[in-house]
Amino acid sequence: MQIRQPVTDIRVDDPLAVLRADQTGVQNISIEEKEGCKTCEWKYWCAGGCPLETYRVTGRYDVKSPNCNIYKALFPEALRLEGLRLLKYADDPEVAMKI
Ligand code: SF4
What is the pLDDT of residues 35-60, one digit of tens each? Predict the structure, then answer.
């Protein structure tokens, strides 16, 4: 999404260090620091959503995603469906080994 605004390139000595020190590009902060996410039961699934999208909508990186309600509706259903899929094959060891 920010490919036209590079933070660094491979010609510098340590591009990873430049990325880590950057304060101008996308700031992908920890989920534990995002307002509204710290106590969310889905925080390790979601991680607060796309940081750039959140910034473009809210002007902040340290808040929950504008799509939060969508995630909270989808994650329980995805988990339920995966559970049903696993149960479907639980009695067939050959199939269970492949999933
Ligand atoms: S579902 Fe919402 S509150 Fe939970 S981690 Fe994702 S954005 Fe944050």
Answer: 999 999 999 999 999 999 999 999 99
Check if the beta carbon of residue 51 is closer than 8 Å to that of residue 63.
no
Q: How far is the CA of 91 from the centre of ligand 1 (A)?
A: 35
21 lies in a domain? yes
- With the most atoms of ligand 1 within 8 angstroms of its CB, the residue from 28, 34, 38, 43 to mutate is 43
Does some domain include residue 49? Answer: yes
Establish if 10 belongs to a structural domain: no
Tell me the residue type at 20.
R
Its pTM stands at 0.77
| Count of domains for the chain | 1
Question: Which residues does residue 63 pair with via DSSP β-bridges, in sequence order?
Answer: 35
Summarize pLDDT for 9-27 with one digit per residue, the tens: 999 999 999 988 998 888 8
For the Cβ of 46 lying below 6 angstroms from any atom of ligand 1, the answer is: yes
Ligand 1 neighbourhood includes 72 CB (under 6 angstroms): yes
Question: Cβ–Cβ contacts within 10 Å for residue 75, how many?
Answer: 15
